[in-house]
Amino acid sequence: MKTAEKILLTSLEMFNEHGEANITCVDIAIELDISPGNLYYHFKGKEAIITALFDMYVKRSSKILVSPDSESLSLSEFFHYLFRLLESTHLFQFIYRNPNDLMQKYPTIERNFKRLINSKEEAFLAILHHFKSIDAIAANESQIDALAQLISLMFTQYQNYFLLTGADIEQDDVSFHCLRLLFNVLTPFLSIPNNEKSAIWLAITEQNI
Amino acid sequence: MKTAEKILLTSLEMFNEHGEANITCVDIAIELDISPGNLYYHFKGKEAIITALFDMYVKRSSKILVSPDSESLSLSEFFHYLFRLLESTHLFQFIYRNPNDLMQKYPTIERNFKRLINSKEEAFLAILHHFKSIDAIAANESQIDALAQLISLMFTQYQNYFLLTGADIEQDDVSFHCLRLLFNVLTPFLSIPNNEKSAIWLAITEQNI
Fold first, then answer.
1. Nearest-CA distance from A209 to chain B in Å?
2. What is the mean pLDDT of chain A?
3. Which of the residues A123, B15, B113, B141 could staple to B94 if both were Cys, CB 3.0 to 4.6 A apart?
4. Are B1-44 and B54-205 in the same CATH fold?
């Protein structure tokens, strides 16, 4: 692995574990056993590292966001898609720890971040409209708007919420926990046969999605 | 108004507007046109002010949390109760801006904060169980758990979410906006007559709750 890649992966791990605000470039250099000068050769300070990590996250999320061809998407594929988004968010969890602070500190990422969150909400909205058009969900316009906003809100904030409550959820299980929450709230809107509902629920609870 | 009270109200306003991290005791003294020494006479530093404000918030919320006698609560009363909680949260919005940071910085409030959030989630759970027992909502145990968690998550995080998306919501309308969201997500679970549903929706949309 190239040094620049190593720096990014180690930074990501340290930011996720200790919070971005508590890690300096020197900490990262020490962890990697390289000189601060060597680190600086690859990244001109912490902002450059944060920006590179954020770009990785946006690229990854955009791929997921674009991929579901909403015209042919099935409900079980939708939950698979939600799961991939949750896993991607979990991998870059430091971004969501104090996103408003992060944007204030690094204005370069602010616009892209706002755009990413809004495009997520719009993607949820488009997908829910698609399900309504093929009669897979029964919901009026206000309900679809509310669901899209609530799903998006949950995606960006669940981590902070679980930190707040001190909920005892295994790190490996966080994405599935969120998926179970969403499924439970969405079920009464789903107008698909019960055996299809059960199949999705089974895939989620058996973590086989 | 006594000086101590004036200090608290001015601090609350300044924290809400600019964020707790961006306001010092000297800023507060200047705004009040009193000497830093006079402020220090009443509150020994920012931590003392934060703690006093947090106590005010807990006292206020606990009153709301305890008040609904879940045995006789109706659904329209429940939405009224949610509205009062939202308004109270909005009044002390600085607490929810970066709650995890706040707890790290002021460990004295950490335990009380965790307790407050968890007692909110438990209150929602108890109320939803009550509605199930009187057949006002149709939901299984997992759905009730999910709804209680999602309502609670929304309560603590909506502010940060709207900041993130840059959603254009008037400050005065934030609580009603959240209430509309919740109502829309809850409707398919409600097994009350349609005219009762419409009456609640009307009260929410006409901001007459």
1. 19
2. 89
3. B15
4. no
Predicted complex ipTM: 0.86
CA angle, residues A148, A151, A154, in degrees to nearest 5: 145
Instruction: Identify which of A114, A157, A166 has the shortest CB distance to residue B166.
Output: A114
- Which tens digit of pLDDT belongs to each residue from A158-206? 888 888 888 777 777 888 999 999 999 999 999 999 999 999 999 998 8
Q: Is A41 on the interface with B (CB under 8 A)?
A: no
CB atoms within 10 A of CB A144: 20
Q: Is the pLDDT assigned to residue A107 strictly greater than 90?
A: no
pLDDT tens digits, one per residue of A59-86: 888 887 665 566 778 888 899 889 998 9
Exposure string for B25-60, b = 16+ CB within 10 A, e = fewer: beebbeebebeeeebeebbeebeebbbbbbeebbeb
With beta carbons less than 8 A apart as the criterion, state whether B118 and A165 touch: yes
Give this prediction's pTM.
0.88
DSSP code string of A25-52: HHHHHHHHT--HHHHHHH-SSHHHHHHH
Topology given in CATH for the domain delimited by A54-205: Tetracycline Repressor; domain 2 (1.10.357)
CB proximity under 8 Å: B 154-173 to A:
154, 156-158, 160-161, 163-166
Q: Is A142 on the interface with B (CB under 8 A)?
A: yes
For residue A138, what is the nearest residue in chain B, using CA coordinates?
B188
Q: List the 97-126 stretch of B: residues with Cβ below 8 A of A.
A: 97-101, 103, 113-114, 117-118, 121
Residue B46 CA to residue B26 CA, distance in Å, equals 10
Looking at beta carbons, which residues of chain A come within 8 Å of B186?
none
Structure letter (DSSP) for residue B171:
G
Query: How do the domains of chain B map onto residue ranges?
Result: 1-44, 54-205
The residue type of B15 is F
Pick the CATH number of B1-44 from 1.20.1290.10, 1.10.10.60, 3.40.50.720, 3.40.640.10: 1.10.10.60
Cross-strand partners of A137: A190
> Looking at beta carbons, which residues of chain A come within 8 Å of B143?
184-185, 187-188
Structure tokens at A33: 């056993």
Question: What pLDDT score was predicted for residue B65?
Answer: 65
Residue B138 · residue B189 · CB < 8 Å: yes
Residue B31 has what pLDDT?
97
C-alpha radius of gyration, chain A, whole number: 19
Q: Does B149 touch chain A (CB under 8 A)?
A: yes
* A145/A45 Cα distance (integer angstroms): 41
